[in-house]
Amino acid sequence: MSVRLLSRLGSAALVLFGVCTLVFLLIHLVPGDPVEAMLGESARPADREALRQALGLDLPLAQQYRNYLAGLARLDLGHSLLDQRPVAAVLAERLPATVQLAVTALLLALLLAIPLGVLAARKRGTGVDAGAMLFSLVGVSMPNFWLGPLLILLFSLWLGWLPVSGSDQPGSLVLPAVTLGTALAAILARMVRASVLEVLQEDYIRTARAKGLSESALLWRHALRNALLPVLTLVGLQLGALLGGAVITETVFGWPGLGSLLVESIQARDYPVVQGCVLLISVVYVAVNTATDLAYTLADPRIGVG
Amino acid sequence: MRRLQPVLPVAVVALWALVALLGPWLPLAPDRVDLPQILAAPSAALPLGADDLGRPVLDRLLSGARTAFVVGVGVVLVSAIIGALLGGAAGFAGGWFDLVVVRVIDVFLAFPGILLAIALAGILGPGLGNVIVALSVVGWVGYARLARAQILSLKQREHVTAARALGVASPRILLRHLLPLALAPLVVEATFGIAAAVIAEAGLSFLGLGVQPPEASWGSMIRDGVGYMLVAPHLVLAPGLAVMTVVLAVNLLGDRLRDHLDVRSLRVAQ
Amino acid sequence: MTEVLLQVEQLTTELAAAGSSGGGAVRVCDAVGFDIRRGETLALLGESGCGKSMTALSLMRLLPLSGRITAGAVRLDGTDLLGLSERDMRGVRGGRMGMIFQEPQTSLNPVLTVGAQIAEAVQLHGTPPRGRGRSGRWIQDRVVELLRAVGIPDPARRAGEYPHQLSGGMKQRVMIAMALAGDPQLLIADEPTTALDVTIQAQVLQLLKGLQQQTGMAVLLITHDLGVVAETADRLAVMYAGQIVEQATSADFFAGPAHPYSRKLMESLPSADKRHGALAVIPGRVPPLDRPFSGCRFVERCFRAMDRCGETAPGWYPAADTAAGTKGSQDASLDPATDASGHMVRCLLWENADVATVWPTAARPATDETAQPAGPASSAVSAAATAPRQAAQAQRDNRPPAEHPTLLAARDLQVHFPIQRGLFRRTVGYVKAVDGVDLDLRPGRTLALVGESGCGKTTVGKGILQLERPTGGSIRYNGDDLARLGDGAMRRHRKDLQIIFQDPFASMNPRMLVGDIVGEGLQALGIERGRAARRRVAELLEQVGIGEQAMGRYPHEFSGGQRQRICIARALAVEPRIIVCDEPTSALDVSVQAQILNLLKQLQQDLGLSYLFITHDISVVAYLAHEVAVMYLGRIVERGTTAEVLDDPRHPYTRALLSAVPMVERAHRRRRIQLDGDMPSPSDPPAGCHFHPRCPEALPGCAAAYPDAVHLSDSRFVRCVRDRVPNPEVGA
Predict the structure, then answer these.
(1) CATH class of segment(s) A94-305
(2) What is any one of the record's Gene Ontology cellular component terms (chain A) (predicted)?
């Protein structure tokens, strides 16, 4: 158990190191001079030099990299070019909103997907199944930058039930969470259905039937746990799509999270904040995945030993 | 005759490809500004109305189809070829090379969804080429992982052992025994990959990180239309429907393809 | 209370045909009828696809979704099972009628403890003794009691364990415990030991027998193994193509099977008696079951088929010893169920006939050298031609091995697999799959490498061919040490050393044409190209009895036996001198196995091939091998000529192994030596002699050191301390 735990944590650390390196290199990918890109071509040479020094871009690459890593160790991600505030502080301000949105969307997706997937599997081949799978296919194919405006049009502009954007009114969370959660719900419903169907084919389900167990006992005691375990790791991986989707959803609804911060910073060419956003979202993602993996380890007795 | 034949999805995808490939020769005027027609509702002359600059929405829609197609096919080609070669080579060679590739794959997988593509596209600046680069940087990983897993499991098969016992050389084993069998799942993955790339391109363009204006993209059309949703909902509805129809059709085709290949493997495994 | 417990009448089950254009149904059981009496064991015997498992699932009403019972009646002690509501049927399942399955590995839920899984059955069907409520406490006690009853040591602790912590044999015991929870009147055992090793099979069959005596339950044993039937069943029913074709008591059946199919099945079993001749084969394939039959289902493959067999569906006839017994034979609707003790057969040969007229030569199927395939359909080899050759071969076979030159010699062969853990794939130990094996292969001779799963026998074969690189030892061939050759240098020898696998389908690339598969070696090694290569491939396919028209087809178009022939042709293509045969017939039915064994034997005679025959099947060894090496946990514990080892086994493991093999012939049965426990892991073998913890004859010194080989003759050695000093009492 502990060996596996340590090795899992070790590889997570290695991945994070790689992520940090890649994010560091991001800024050096800018074609031409990053400082020029940030300030525009009309900037005065003195301003350029000042910024170059402030960002440490005048140092050799290896030195820059060392400074960057040393900064990370102190949680120092540099300063925003816009208002000179520490990037870490800006991120800390925006993180809670994104977590709130992502968690709500995730719960919504799970609450919708699990019953739908199980129902479709049990009623396999019927209209219920076909309907659920049609919903799922449409949900997967519906981009959130379209679903969001549609929901705004319907519920905010025409019906006037919910606010158009922002996060300060009651009900603000509803539309962004639905927008973000729909695609995930659609994907998960398919996975749950496939997983339940697969488990129902297993020999041990036949054994349980031969024991005289009722169909509902079969489903609840024998099928569901085995079927949902693999879905759990998939949820962890799908969280990536969710966090990526949050960038667009937050922009659509003006939701003050990390996603809209990222887009704002890209538009403002505030590269230190861009770096910080990418880094933080990735770290959260890796952490959550490591956690689900370990949860899986605990939940599945086959992996638990050794 | 297990299910309905996929006539509709095939027709949609064929139409899409046709419009995209014939685009330059079609009498389209996506950039023609016609001030009196600003925000015009659909009519006989303008079947889908006009946008906030008076440009014809239908022409922009068809022109956007080409953008989506070029990005969708381009990204899949670039990322599938790079990914499959790298992943396949790692699985076949094993050893330290495999170890390195696996670690690199892990690092790229640690960036959630299209986050890295958004950041990259933002830094590289707008443009069709940059969009393809940004999405391929993110996209190759999936193919690499799949190809590696395929080759690793195929390597264990007994027909490969039998070929080794017959003295068949490694390149020939790769060519005859591994690649043809690894191809099917990669093709299915690539089909879904086209759908994902279409959504991603539209997403980047929606954020203003995609193609350079005034070039038309379904994503930027939605972005431009959002502000006029109450007065001219067709500006959002038309491009959104276009994205959804194409993506749905491609996903349906992928599903069919997967079922088809599964059926074959089942029949083979009897 | 009647004698009869279960009555099955005219049971007909259909499966919706997947992918068939007509939408027709496959009739997997067609008017199946039999009785089971209280406390008896009835075996339902048949080859794969005959409908025996579907019959069992029909009785439990556990058919797959596409399955449907279309007619018939099943009565369990007076209860009409097919008329019960699903709810009431659930009360019968696991209660009055329990069932165990073939694959213990997958038949238990991996995420629940075995105790919890048994407790479910106890909860549903257990009856607490007077004065005790159905409390959790009682259920726990009952679970432990059941585990103890099926012979699981330390049952209280084991109840808390998960299936993956138990061995295959233990899991099957848990399955039995679960089935016993409802004190069943009938236990249905569907191939309960097929997935288990022979020593474990012996344990499980022994356990079932004992439990049956204690509880008085009846057993319906579904199996393909004639040996298992002979040793365990009171009566049996033979199934073919969805129908029962013969019913008899075990004694009557094995004294003289009446149906031509049963007879051929018996004659196709390999054994020592038949080693100087060809095995009987059944030509053709089982007919498809998605269309109605006009006559007998076996007619196309039958060597005694008459004209009217194709038109008249046979009824039941008594297979009596005397003409007096044929009285009732006019009545074609006669049901064997009315006369459970009688020997009944569904074959027109028996209409108005008795044994003397149907099988005039002998009442029993011939098992000695006179056993020649009768009739034109059986074999291409005519009896006249084989007789002198057999005599010559028998003479050759009896020569001591030392008189044959050595072709390939492995010395101290080791294949250790590193166990890697953690982030940097650090090696934390080794699985010693092969740990010091010596063996010699001689031209025209077969060395059988025998052992149970996990003993390393397959790895020996791969190690010799350099398909797994040995980590130690040498393999001398043609002046080279193969273990020291690079890949390029090894390629020169590839031509001489070939391999055939257990699963012929997996060993062919499904996307390649048969012609390309067979010709691959010719091309790779540059032996022949172009038209000459194609001609050679065509010849090879003829040689293995497939025909050259197969060249343009894909592997999935062939049956299992045909696929194995194609694999043999592929190996032969490069004209090898040695072929490693890795369980080449284990996945095949007995009648198909006979074809492949005949072919291999014929090829050896014609081409002087040397075989390393890896198998777990002792009867195949007896039929085919000249020498035998017995492996246990990575090492050879005993080696000698086939006669030496099989007739006078010296190592305690060899003796236990041989005694565990179920035998059809009563005379060949040995006193069973029961081995306890399972084979330990090759990553952590016991100190000293690896076998000593399970050895019934272990001495105190056995744990100290692995015993050296003791040579008992030129051809024979044993690695056991008991043989170090000649001991007149051992091996008596």
Answers:
(1) mainly alpha
(2) plasma membrane
